[in-house]
Design brief:
The chain has 278 residues and is an alpha/beta fold. It has 12 helices and 9 strands. It folds into 2 domains: 207 residues, Vaccinia Virus protein VP39 (Rossmann fold), CATH 3.40.50; 60 residues, Helicase, Ruva Protein, domain 3.
Length: 278
């Protein structure tokens, strides 16, 4: 890939700019440009897309996204040490890479992007889940993005695609699958990263549905799901008693036995319960 864009290999970039990964920023760098290109390809055809990338680090995935034909990449990077390396990529791809120095939890990317928009990122471990939940729960649907292609710890990826009855099934699965199609498209061993994390990683691809699978008020559904899984060992009549004094009646109206536990309840049933509580 360094032959495609004329830029040096990532190990050289990291050495030149003294970019050791910082644990406090949840950084684990991917140095294999063939691998970053493969992740970029999981996002689909990017030729007519603007792409939001969070936590580009030294720019391995950034280069993959640009080489795969993204119309524009907006990269948000909190670590100012990485900015000179990203500036070199911007020079190699004139007018196609914009870098914002800041915290992705506080930056509004929409002023810098033109639809259609994809999000593709090797998310910093310490903010990955929070960002995903934000992207899945906007007031207005469909959202500003058409697809999310995101790297997580394997355990988090499995929670996103989990089905009822499994240990991994919980709030993330319900929120993701209510409004999107979610699947794991790539698995990566710790050895793919520098420094190697203690766990395996996986890339999840989510495609926004035109409308949610089942009708429900977003805020009510979020509240129900949070309460149910916060006490997942309890029967629902106990876990949800704070939501309504007649919670057993509401559960039965939604077709759920009050003695069920959260992990046994399907997405459709959670939505029915949210409607019964609304």
């Amino acid at each position: 890939m360094s032959g495609i864009d004329g830029l040096p290999p990532l190990r050289e970039v990291i050495a030149t700019h003294e970019l050791s990964a910082k644990k406090s920023l949840g950084q684990n760098f991917l140095l294999d440009l063939n691998l970053t290109a493969k992740i970029a390809r999981q996002a689909g055809d990017l030729s007519g897309m603007d792409v939001l990338e969070v936590g580009p680090g030294p720019g391995g995935l950034t280069r993959g996204l640009l080489a795969e034909g993204a119309r524009k990449v907006l990269a948000i990077e909190k670590d100012t040490r990485c900015l000179p390396a990203l500036a070199e990529i911007a020079e190699a791809y004139p007018g196609r890479l914009e870098v914002i120095s800041g915290d992705a939890l506080q930056v509004d990317p929409l002023a810098h992007l033109t639809p259609p928009i994809a999000i593709c990122a090797n998310l910093p471990y310490n903010v990955g889940t929070e960002l995903l939940v934000r992207w899945l729960t906007p007031e207005i649907w469909p959202p500003f993005w058409t697809t999310l292609t995101l790297m997580f710890q394997r355990e988090v990826a499995e929670r996103i695609v989990a089905q009822p009855g499994s240990k991994a099934y919980g709030r993330l699965a319900v929120l993701a699958q209510w409004r999107a199609e979610a699947r794991i498209v790539l698995s990566l061993p710790p050895s793919a990263f520098t420094p190697p994390p203690k766990v395996s990683s996986a890339v999840v691809h989510l495609r926004a549905l035109p409308e949610p699978r089942f009708p429900a008020e977003r805020a009510v559904l979020e509240r129900v799901v949070a309460a149910a899984f916060n006490q997942r060992r309890k029967m629902l009549r106990a876990a949800l008693k704070g939501l309504a004094p007649d919670i057993e009646d509401r559960l039965e109206a939604a077709g759920i036995a009050p003695t069920e536990r959260a992990e046994q309840v399907s997405l459709e049933q959670f939505c029915a319960l949210a409607r019964a509580l609304a």
